[in-house]
Design a protein that fits this description.
- The complex is a heterotrimer of chains A (about 1000), B (about 90) and C (about 425).
- Chain A is about 20% helix and about 30% strand.
- Chain A is an alpha+beta fold.
- Chain A has seven domains: about 1-150, Ubiquitin-like (UB roll) (Roll), CATH 3.10.20; about 160-285 and about 405-465, FAD/NAD(P)-binding domain (3-Layer(bba) Sandwich), CATH 3.50.50; about 300-400, FAD/NAD(P)-binding domain, CATH 3.50.50.60; about 490-560, Arc Repressor Mutant, subunit A (Orthogonal Bundle), CATH 1.10.10; about 590-650 and about 740-825, Gyrase A, domain 2, CATH 3.30.1360; about 650-740, Alpha-Beta Plaits (2-Layer Sandwich), CATH 3.30.70; about 885-980, Beta Barrel (Elongation Factor Tu (Ef-tu), domain 3), CATH 2.40.30.
- In chain A, helix 15 packs across helix 20 (about 830-840).
- Chain A starts with 9 loop residues before the first strand and ends with a helix.
- Chain B has a single domain, classed as 2-Layer Sandwich (Folate-binding fold).
- Chain B is built from two helices and six strands.
- Chain B starts with a strand and ends with a helix.
- By secondary structure, chain C is α/β, with parallel strands linked by helices.
- In chain C, strands 1, 2, 8, 9, 10, 11, 17 and 18 form an eight-stranded mixed β-sheet that branches.
- The longest helix of chain C is centred in the last third of the chain and has 18 residues, at about 365-385.
- The relative contact order of chain C is 0.18.
- Classes of the chains: A alpha+beta (about 1000), B alpha+beta (about 90), C alpha/beta (about 425).
- At the A-B interface, helix 17 and helix 21 of A face helix 1 and helix 2 of B.
């Protein structure tokens, strides 16, 4: 166990964990990476392409190398960065992307073959023989590719989704973010301070610099306490703001329980949608490395990360006691050497590319030198330092690499704003075209020195608050200073061996040079050709180095070579939390009809109809096959009386002096002439002339109509009618309200329906003379319950629809069942409803597909030529007027058998091609009344082809059937029954 | 996105249903000359600007107002929102 | 230079010193027989076909950014020919046949991978609609199969069969469908066109059309005036903007469609699966990322980015359909600008201006059409007659009333 002194770990709380089945121990406050390091485990994973041994590179969420599969079973989480996984008791982790053991990965053979696998090689080969790609090459590539594996089991944890609102969102709780939050908190602003780490402080926790002459974490603790005392400030640790969306909306994920063995009864993570009036982006900076030969071995870290491990976690990689070296192009690397010396770590020295480098302490400086090679298969053992023509090998256990810092501009470029190059910083900072209301502060803005960042946090918060009319108080800054940060523009060490730029995806300097040779010079081409920046770190550790190498190739500047746009999310976000837990049955809301419980009590089976659950059928004991049930229900309607909940049909109440005129403009057929107390079937067209929806329109009073829509279009028709009312004809005196949920509506259908209804209506004469077909009335039933009765029929039988306030729907159903028992009243479901309507040739969604014209249904004459209405003009266009398809009935010729809906129609003997295709079967069923299968379909000129024998072909399932063209009105075509 | 509803203040765009270009309010005269051609333009053709766009949103999960929202299609910045019926009436007077 | 495995081995042994640029960076000539505006998949495929099939090699492709920077560079890579309507299906089947020989035609491995697509259905009505569609596919010479729930369980056992809000009842499968490496398609066409003499001119934005006597004679660009015998515009996503320079209004709106990719995972999903009761479709790339998407955000946009509600909607759909993906992470999301046409189908046609031709309106389905679109557009440019599979893609279908509306939602682009 390698632990240094100090650190922000709780040595009173040891935690046991396992990695690849071996047991280890760390402390509370450790990350998995820190704990592994402290246990001397430096080899953690394998790279994507060459399966190179890899260890920890960073100390944060930018980690490209140290990826593990965390947890077991259904909770297994692949590709987890060990550098941000908090240690908890019993943590289990496994390495990934190897065949055989991590130490002896058989796929490491790829590394030996790496000359074959240069950038873009796969575009140039695997083309012959043609079928080998899918059969041989691709499966092999797919097996080798990928990183971790999913468990293939559903995620057992719970997730939540929430909304937050604030005046100021502060992203990042480092020096700048804490000062920004403090400033805004004292100003009384509603503040959210979010940080991805387990505790606030950011880089302050990793550095040894003092604030107010004390360790920085003491100052952080005081600020945290003050923030906690403000009711207007919410500090959210373990919360990553992953994306910036329009109008100040930010996506964030809070890892509520990832640091615990299990979430218990709580949620694992919460997805927050934060609406912020303004935001401060204080996300810090990410250190970059310097590509040099064999720079990817375990034990080679970013120098700043090395400092973080030493100062915060009291650990270092490498063999115990082995010296540590630093390779830098600027002052920053010297901070690492200084801190390590202070911790008593043997320091070989700092290899600085600059001739004039100044030491920060008592250690050797190799001035004007570079690291030009490394040794150590599974962990760094030695480095080669070259100065001029002299190269020397030195034993080391670890190497820190300091190439400068890249401001974390990611969120600032989520709206496609381009970062701008700051030559003095040798880095991109957010441009002026970033998201509105987002204020970069601290290291993000290129002001990364401790004192600068603290001051910049105050400045950014003050500016942001002023933007929304709030005044920030003067806030005193703690005593701090900026350490020197001079830096040379040194980007990579030239050499013949491979020098990694993108570690995870194994993209080297040579690959970039090859991309240049092959004219993949645009940054986007470079990325796509080499896969650079496409790894799980999204190029956080590689993009800028790659730009620099490409700039060298093209002879242009770095900003002249390009930049890349960062896209959400900032770091990987679990799909579970983005789904917010709306899984399984909770995927969508479920709407239940008012009689749902009644139907369930009757043993109904239910079917999903859009968001609704509708009773599909009501099986009885002894009915072995579903068709026995449906046949019985259909027969009951045709011979006695059936009852069916039709509440799901849309209902729109239309009132006003101009209601009739309005409906006349909305319906294609004439509605203005409808008399009070009568119902009319209506067709609505889209403005393009195609059939939109059908339904009934009932006039309850001079100024009062009730219209129905299909279930599927209930929302859309209402919206469209509101469009007509508000956007086309706002001067008409008419009001609309959707009453679909307000009224329960029950179809009472069959020859005994009148007899049944007469038993429950109060004082209303239902005789055929007094209440004929297509009559309607507002009345009372059951001794005073207000109701609406419509004599309309979908089944072709004598039938009514009875509407009562929704809360009485259940009682009405019970009453109808009870009072109609001796009449043989039978509840029926959607299956029987479907058979009844097919027997009558009534269209539903299978026929009104949005591609349908009125004439296809044989209703062309309903489109009134005497008036305008939505869609009327366009329905007369040549293409629609000439539409040849007509709805026909079909029945099998010869033996009976099911005609499958979706079959296509052909004349007998015709070859089966799209050109000879004459139509299709829309709906089909077994008709218990006809004692055979029947179907509806569209057939070219079908209305003139009655009696013709054609073929319903279903080559998809290798089946076909001879059918006869008949009228779609299979039952009672004269319509006697419904008028009886 | 947030839509500044003229009656209700800023509302999440998720409460709304989008239709399209506000020119859909300018339904041609069905009895005018070349009515069919005018309707074809009205129904099918759009300016589709990259920039300021006046467009129709329906506050479906709200007060059921149709709004004319002026929005930049490149930046998504919203420059204003009015009740469609006011816009239509204003155009008529 | 011919690409082959042998060549790769030879270069590997000699330090990769022999590779050449995949295409030249030519200066624009004063004029060309044909100028193709748009260096995306369709424009490059057009130029390639003009040269390779119609022998017209004095061709320039003008691209305002880097070639392949439009929707070919930002899609979810699905190829399929599983359409319903006779105006569409033969065209997409033609495209599928071109995909099947693309690598050999282009001498470039664009990784066409026919791993199949399954469109799930959840109601009897959806099943019937898919049977109708599957039969249309068969009638056009394409393949298709209706899978039962049991067959699905075998092929894609990880779907939510047991606790779904909308139970999975079966699926329509096309085995020849699959995916292709989208950037590779652009590069393959670019390289093959360049080898045949086509000038691909990047960073060259068209700023206007030159007209003489009602005829287009060239284009104004950021790199000067370029004369042209004919100009073909293939700039889906920017169609309205470009054609406005010729004074045209189009039956097109621009909408943003978001797409998503997860971190790399070992093989999980065999082919393409589309959810029939939510907005979600998914495949897995050769690199291991789950590539998925859903519905449009739904409002006009040129911003190439979308909003959170759509992110949530798409991923809710994914979690509902295959809850085992929950522990994977979203790596990257992005938005592309779709040319959403008024009937959901594309346009490949002449315009009322002599010499100016238009290809666009691909909605969110342009990638799979790339080979056939290029072929049909080249055919039109070369012969002034529509290709036999693209005859329905005319401008005047809207006015005449012959729309190709697969979804049946009418002239509202965000619903297609």
């Amino acid at each position: 166990m390698t632990r240094l002194t100090g650190g922000l770990i709780d040595r009173e709380k040891p935690l046991d964990f396992t990695f690849d089945g071996r047991s280890y121990s760390g402390y509370a406050g450790d990350t998995l990476a820190a704990a592994l390091m402290a246990n001397g485990v430096d080899l953690i994973g394998r790279s994507f392409k060459y399966h190179r041994p890899r260890g920890v590179l960073s100390a944060g969420s930018e980690e490209p190398n140290a990826l593990v599969t965390l947890r077991d079973g259904a909770r297994a989480e692949p590709n987890t960065r060990a550098t941000v996984a908090e240690l908890y008791a019993g943590l289990t982790a496994r390495s990934q992307n190897h065949v055989g053991s991590l130490e002896r990965d058989l796929l490491a053979v790829n590394d030996l073959l790496s000359p074959l696998f240069a950038a873009g090689f796969y575009y140039k080969t695997f083309m012959w023989p043609r079928t080998f790609w899918e059969k041989l090459y691709e499966p092999a590539i797919r097996r080798a590719a990928g990183l971790g594996a999913l468990s293939m089991e559903p995620d057992p944890d719970a997730y939540d989704k929430g909304f937050l609102h604030c005046d100021l969102l502060v992203i990042g709780a480092g020096a700048a973010g804490l000062m920004a939050a403090l400033t805004a908190g004292r100003a009384g602003a509603k503040v959210i301070l979010a940080d991805e780490d387990m505790r606030p402080g950011g880089r302050l926790l990793a550095e040894s610099d003092l604030l107010n002459d004390a360790p920085a974490h003491e100052w952080v603790r005081a600020v945290r306490a003050e923030l906690a005392s403000f009711p207007n400030v919410r500090f959210m640790p373990r919360t990553t703001v992953f994306g910036v969306y329009d109008h100040g909306i930010y996506g964030a994920v809070e890892r509520v329980a990832d640091h615990l063995p299990t979430p218990g009864d709580g949620v694992r993570q919460t997805f927050w949608r934060i609406t912020a009036k303004r935001a401060v982006l204080a996300a810090g900076a990410i250190e970059r490395h310097i590509p040099f030969a064999d720079n990817d071995r375990p034990g080679i870290l970013l120098a700043g990360a090395m400092r973080a491990y030493a100062n915060r976690w009291a650990t270092l990689p490498g063999r115990a006691g082995a010296p540590v070296a630093v390779f830098t192009n600027g002052d920053d690397g010297h901070r690492t050497a200084r801190d390590l010396v202070a911790k008593g770590v043997p320091v070989l020295g700092v290899v600085d590319t600059r001739e004039d480098a100044q030491a920060f302490g008592d250690y050797e400086v190799f001035r004007g030198a570079t690291v030009t090679g490394t040794r150590g298969r599974r962990g760094l053992r030695a480095i080669q330092i070259t100065r001029g023509a002299t190269a020397t090998w030195h034993d080391v256990g670890a190497l820190g690499v300091a190439g400068g810092w890249n401001p974390n501009v990611h969120l600032a470029s989520h709206h496609r704003g381009r970062p701008v190059w700051k030559a003095d910083l040798l880095a991109f900072v957010p441009g002026a075209d970033g998201p509105k209301g987002l204020f970069p502060a601290g290291a993000v803005a290129g002001r990364g020195g401790t004192a600068s960042a603290l001051a910049d946090g105050v400045r950014a918060a003050t500016t942001a608050l002023a933007d929304i009319g709030m005044t920030a108080p003067k806030v005193a800054l703690p005593e701090a200073s900026d350490v020197p940060h001079a830096q040379a523009a040194f980007w990579h060490v030239p050499g013949k061996r491979r020098a990694w730029v993108d570690f995870q995806n194994d993209v080297t300097v040579k690959d970039i040079a090859l991309a240049h040779t092959e004219n993949m010079r645009s940054v986007e081409h470079l990325k796509r050709w080499t896969t650079l920046g496409m790894a799980t770190d999204q190029g956080k550790t590689s993009n800028i180095a790659a730009l620099a190498v490409m700039a060298e190739q093209t002879g242009q500047t770095i900003p002249g070579t390009g930049t890349t746009i960062f896209r959400p999310p900032y770091t990987g976000v679990s799909l579970s939390v983005l789904g917010g837990g709306d899984t399984g049955k909770h995927f969508r809301p479920t709407r239940l009809t008012p009689t749902h419980d009644w139907a369930a009590a009757q043993g109904a089976t239910f079917v999903e109809v859009g968001p609704w659950m509708r009773a599909q059928m009501f099986p009885r004991a002894g009915e072995g096959h579903w068709r026995e049930t449906v046949d019985r229900e259909v027969t009951a309607v045709r011979s006695a009386v059936g009852i069916c909940d039709v509440t799901t049909l849309g209902k729109i109440d239309v009132q006003g002096a101009d209601a009739a005129e309005f409906l006349n403009r909305v319906y294609a057929n004439m509605m203005a002439t409808l008399k009070v107390g009568r119902v009319r079937y209506g067709l609505m067209l889209r403005e393009d002339g195609h059939l939109y929806d059908d339904g009934t329109c009932a006039r309850l009073g001079e100024d009062h109509f009730v219209v129905t829509t299909t279930t599927a279009n209930a929302g859309a028709v209402y919206r469209n009618m509101e469009f007509a009312r508000q956007c086309l004809w706002p001067d008409l005196d008419v009001q609309l309200i959707s009453t679909t949920d307000a009224w329960a509506q029950i179809a009472v259908a069959g020859p005994k329906s009148r007899a049944l209804l007469e038993r429950i209506v109060d004082d209303t004469d239902l005789s055929n003379e007094a209440f004929p077909f297509m009559a309607c009335a507002a009345l009372t039933i059951c001794g005073g319950l207000r109701a609406r009765l419509f004599r309309i029929s979908f089944s072709g039988e004598l039938a009514y629809e009875l509407a009562v306030p929704a809360r009485y729907g259940h009682a009405l159903m019970e009453r109808l069942a009870e009072r109609g028992a001796d009449l043989g009243v039978t509840p029926y479901g959607t299956e029987a409803l479907g058979v009844l309507r097919i027997e009558k040739g009534h269209a539903t969604g299978a026929e009104i597909t949005g591609q349908t014209t009125a004439s296809m249904l044989g209703l062309g004459r309903m489109v009134s030529a005497k008036k305008d209405a939505l869609g009327a003009v366009m329905s007369r266009r040549e293409g629609l007027a000439a539409e040849a398809w007509r709805l026909v009935g079909l029945k099998p010729v010869g033996g009976d058998g099911p005609i499958l809906a979706g079959s296509h129609l052909f004349t007998e003997g015709a070859v089966r091609t799209l050109d000879t295709d004459q139509g299709w079967v829309t709906s089909a069923c077994y008709s218990p009344n006809l004692g055979r299968h029947i179907a509806l379909g569209y057939l070219e000129h079908g209305d003139t082809r009655m009696g013709e024998r054609i073929v319903a072909a279903n080559p998809l399932e290798g089946q076909e059937m001879a059918v006869e063209v008949v009228s779609p009105d299979f039952v009672d075509p004269e319509g006697v029954r419904l008028r009886d | 996105m947030l839509i500044p509803h003229p009656l209700l203040g800023a509302r999440d765009a998720q409460e709304f249903t989008y239709l399209g270009d506000a020119s859909l309010m300018d339904r041609p005269d069905p009895n005018g000359p070349e009515a069919e051609a005018a309707f074809c333009d009205y129904v099918f053709l759009r300016d589709n600007p990259a920039g300021v766009h006046r467009e129709l949103w329906f506050h479906e999960q709200g007060d059921r107002s149709w709004l004319v929202v002026t929005r930049d299609t490149v930046t998504h910045e919203i420059l204003g929102a009015e009740l469609a019926r006011d816009v239509k009436r204003g155009a008529q007077t | 230079m011919t690409f082959s495995g042998l060549r790769v081995v030879k270069e590997a042994l000699t330090g990769h010193k022999g590779w050449k640029p995949l295409w030249r960076n030519p200066e624009p000539k004063p004029s060309y027989d044909v100028v193709v505006v748009g260096g995306g998949g369709h424009g490059l495929a057009t130029a390639y076909t003009l040269a390779a099939t119609y022998g017209i090699t004095n061709v320039a492709v003008l691209e305002k950014g880097w070639l392949g920077s439009g929707n070919i560079g930002r899609n979810t890579t699905i190829i399929r020919s599983n359409y319903l309507l006779p105006g569409n299906q033969p065209f997409y089947e033609f495209s599928m046949k071109l995909w099947e020989r693309q690598e050999q035609d282009l001498n470039f491995n664009s990784m066409v991978s026919q791993r199949g697509i399954i469109n799930l259905f959840h109601t009897d009505g959806q099943r019937d609609a898919y049977r109708r569609r599957g039969n249309a596919m068969h009638l056009s010479g394409a393949d298709g199969r209706l899978l039962t729930r049991e067959e699905l369980r075998e092929k894609v056992p990880f779907l939510n069969f047991d606790n779904a809000r909308f139970p999975i009842k079966g699926g329509l499968m096309q085995s020849r469908a699959g995916t292709a490496r989208h950037d590779g398609v652009a590069w393959g066409y670019a390289r093959a066109a360049d080898m045949r003499g086509v000038d691909i001119i990047q960073n060259c934005e068209v700023t206007g059309f030159r007209m003489e006597g009602g005829r287009v004679t060239g284009v104004e660009t950021t790199r000067g005036t370029i004369g042209a015998g004919k100009v073909g515009v293939a700039v889906a996503g920017s169609s309205s903007r470009v054609m406005a320079m010729a004074g045209m209004r189009l039956p097109i709106e621009s909408h943003v469609l978001q797409a998503f990719v997860s971190e790399g995972l070992k093989p999980t999903i065999p082919g393409v699966v589309t959810f029939g009761a939510g907005h979600f479709y998914v495949s897995q790339s050769d690199k291991g990322g789950l590539v998925f998407g859903g519905d449009l955000d739904g409002y006009n946009s040129y911003a190439q980015r979308g909003g959170l509600p759509t992110v949530e909607d798409v991923i809710e759909g994914g979690m509902a359909l295959m809850p085992m993906i929950g522990r994977a992470r979203l790596l990257r999301s992005w938005g592309g600008i779709m040319d959403m046409s008024m009937d959901g189908s594309p346009i490949i046609d002449r315009t009322h201006i002599d010499g100016l031709y238009f290809n666009g309106g691909w909605c969110y389905g342009g990638f799979k059409a790339t080979p056939a679109s290029g072929y049909a557009f080249a055919h039109l440019l070369a012969t002034d007659t529509p290709h036999e599979t693209a005859r329905a893609y005319r401008f005047d279908r809207f006015t005449r009333g012959h729309v190709i509306d697969e979804k049946g939602v009418g002239a509202q682009p965000n619903l297609h």
